[in-house]
From TrEMBL, chain A:
<dbReference type="InterPro" id="IPR029055">
    <property type="entry name" value="Ntn_hydrolases_N"/>
</dbReference>
<dbReference type="GO" id="GO:0010498">
    <property type="term" value="P:proteasomal protein catabolic process"/>
</dbReference>
<feature type="region of interest" description="Disordered">
    <location>
        <begin position="235"/>
        <end position="264"/>
    </location>
</feature>
<dbReference type="Pfam" id="PF00227">
    <property type="entry name" value="Proteasome"/>
</dbReference>
<dbReference type="GO" id="GO:0004298">
    <property type="term" value="F:threonine-type endopeptidase activity"/>
</dbReference>
<dbReference type="GO" id="GO:0019941">
    <property type="term" value="P:modification-dependent protein catabolic process"/>
</dbReference>
<comment type="function">
    <text>Component of the proteasome core, a large protease complex with broad specificity involved in protein degradation.</text>
</comment>
<dbReference type="InterPro" id="IPR050115">
    <property type="entry name" value="Proteasome_alpha"/>
</dbReference>
<dbReference type="InterPro" id="IPR001353">
    <property type="entry name" value="Proteasome_sua/b"/>
</dbReference>
Automatic annotation (TrEMBL), chain B:
<feature type="propeptide" description="Removed in mature form; by autocatalysis">
    <location>
        <begin position="1"/>
        <end position="54"/>
    </location>
</feature>
<dbReference type="InterPro" id="IPR023333">
    <property type="entry name" value="Proteasome_suB-type"/>
</dbReference>
<dbReference type="InterPro" id="IPR022483">
    <property type="entry name" value="PSB_actinobac"/>
</dbReference>
<dbReference type="GO" id="GO:0004298">
    <property type="term" value="F:threonine-type endopeptidase activity"/>
</dbReference>
<feature type="active site" description="Nucleophile">
    <location>
        <position position="55"/>
    </location>
</feature>
<keyword id="KW-0068">Autocatalytic cleavage</keyword>
<keyword id="KW-0888">Threonine protease</keyword>
<keyword id="KW-0647">Proteasome</keyword>
<comment type="pathway">
    <text>Protein degradation; proteasomal Pup-dependent pathway.</text>
</comment>
């Protein structure tokens, strides 16, 4: 029989933490910050797999780390929010309840399973004014922090936070806030410690728009994003849709069955 | 709260599974008691007259999309249960749903359908096609068949603006259903509920393909007037209480409900027209 080596609980926890932290630090970063018109969420992301998404009317989700893990957490959040909203009322879905569920879940996964989740997530809830905004950071081990104003997650989050801390202003408009977020994300990762200039193609951007009623989440892409990155403002109506691309075109659909004759 | 399911307070596995993007399918596993079709009813009884019934709903395809209108009456046998019930609602940003039949189950069906569509959008990051939405609704109606057999039948009318239509001239589309979950696409116009025979007869004479939204709103209010004229369960424009039909449109710009002022103007025109000529 193989000999079992003793490992102290402290050692086990340390090893797991280190493993999770390394995994998170490898990925690209994301920042979330309050501005005058709402909450801005920006992730460095060159793929179409999303790191930022809508959870409910005034709540958004941003994550860094391992995609399959935070994707299942995101789905769980949408399910929980929709179920609470259906059973009670839309106003009864809160960011704090979601953050609580996430800390419990990540905490249990961290201490009970072999491999901890390599993720760090942010739950953002937009309020009527910037000081009513709520930002929760939930770590891989289930620890949760309430960080009003701004937060950075992922690889070299410290350095990015330092840029944000110096220049963040809750009364800034959207182009200014976006410029700061892009600059903060670009302040790390260049060769020899140089800064980078991130283009629209490298950024995934969304806002929770304070002034809207109902679903406030808007994804900003393409033309609207280029205009904003050029320090010009975009009218509210052109910010983009809620989180939904239109369905696939109908002309490619077979008429009756995929095997029928009239499919041409 | 959903997290109450698990003693550790963590989200149960069913929440974290990849599973499905359909909210009702998720509910059927996580909390089946929240689905209207899953409640056992005592056998052999008819609950039909014990619950309020909603009546006439009309949908008309226009050049820009669709118009849906519903009267404001709910009845319970010979009594009027409500004078100002709203039976036409937005299903999502491009489609509308109206209900006829047992009001309680209908309202629940609408809420569930709204969450279903929004849930899919959020999970997939894409909207369902209009046919996909109609098929989903048909499945939900089918789930209520047991209750329908015992007098709690509800039938929806679904219409919307198709963002990727086969024929761009026919972007406004209407779907009707039967209690068994049968799904039928309608051309031009459709009405459901007890006054639907009279409303459809009125529309048959007046409807022309490609009507404008404004004309269709007028047609819908006229048709509801005709339904109320001959069907006691359909309410006409209530001038004394200022209660007028709910009229909504779905076009490329999304769904909107006609404002109080707009519908008041149309309803007053229709009523004063009937003062001259009761037959319209």
């Amino acid at each position: 029989m193989a000999m079992q080596f003793y490992a102290s609980p402290e050692q086990v926890q340390r090893d797991r933490s280190e493993y999770a932290r390394k995994g998170i630090a490898r990925g690209r970063s994301a920042v979330v910050l309050s501005y005058e018109g709402g909450i801005l969420l920006v992730a460095e992301n060159i793929t179409t797999l999303r790191k930022i998404s809508e959870i409910y009317d005034r709540i958004a989700f941003a994550a860094v780390g391992r995609y399959n893990e935070f994707e299942s957490l995101r789905r769980a959040g949408v399910r929980m929010a929709d179920m609470t909203g259906l059973t009670y009322d839309r106003r009864d879905v809160t960011g704090r309840a979601l953050a609580n569920a996430y800390t419990q879940t990540l905490g249990a996964i961290f201490s009970e399973t072999q491999k901890p989740y390599e993720v760090e997530i942010c739950i953002a809830q937009v309020g009527a004014t910037p000081d009513q905004d709520e930002l929760y950071r939930i770590m891989y081990d289930g620890s949760a922090l309430d960080e009003p104003g701004f937060m950075a997650m992922g690889g070299q989050a410290e350095a990015i936070s330092a840029v944000l801390r110096e220049r963040h202003d809750v009364n800034a408009d959207l182009p200014t806030a976006l410029a700061l977020a892009a600059e903060a994300l670009g302040s790390v990762g260049g060769e020899n410690g140089q800064t980078r200039t991130l283009t629209a193609k490298q950024l995934e951007v969304a806002v929770l728009d304070r002034r809207r009623v109902g679903r406030t989440f808007r994804r900003i892409a393409d033309a609207a994003l280029l205009t904003l990155l050029g320090h010009e403002s975009v009218p509210d109506a052109d910010l983009g849709e809620t989180d939904a691309a239109p369905p696939a075109p109908a002309d490619s659909k077979p008429v009756e069955s995929a095997a029928s004759e009239d499919t041409e | 709260m959903a997290t109450g399911f698990d003693p550790s307070g963590r989200l149960p596995d069913i929440f974290l599974n990849t599973g499905t993007s359909s909210f009702t399918q998720f509910l059927s596993a996580a909390a089946p008691e929240l689905l209207p079709g899953r409640r056992p009813l005592p056998p052999g009884l008819s609950a039909g007259d014990a619950a309020p019934h909603g009546t006439t709903i009309i949908a008309i395809a226009t050049a820009e999309g669709v118009v849906m209108a519903g009267d404001r009456r709910a009845t319970m046998g010979n009594l009027i249960a409500s004078r100002d019930i709203k039976k036409v609602h937005p299903a999502d940003s491009y489609s509308l749903i109206g209900i006829a039949g047992t009001a309680g189950i209908g309202i629940e069906l609408i809420r569930l359908f709204q969450v279903e569509l929004e849930h899919y959008e959020k999970t997939e990051g894409a909207m369902l096609s209009l046919d996909g939405k109609a098929n989903r609704l048909a499945a939900m109606v089918r789930g209520n068949l047991g209750a329908a057999m015992q007098g709690l039948a509800v039938v929806p009318l679904f219409a919307g603006f198709d963002l990727s239509p086969l024929d761009s001239a026919r972007a406004g589309r209407i779907f009707s259903f039967d209690v068994a979950g049968g799904l039928y696409e309608e051309t031009g116009y459709e009405a459901i509920g007890s006054g639907s025979l009279f409303a459809k007869a009125a529309l048959k004479k007046k409807y022309r393909p490609g009507v404008s939204t404004d004309e269709a709103v007028r047609l819908a209010v006229e048709a509801l007037y005709d339904a109320a004229d001959d069907d006691t369960a359909t309410g006409g424009p209530d001038l004394t209480r200022k209660i007028y039909p709910v009229v909504m449109t779905a076009t490329a710009n999304g769904t909107t409900r006609l404002s109080e002022a707009e519908i008041t103007t149309v309803a007053e025109q229709v009523v004063s027209g009937r003062m001259e000529n009761p037959g319209g």
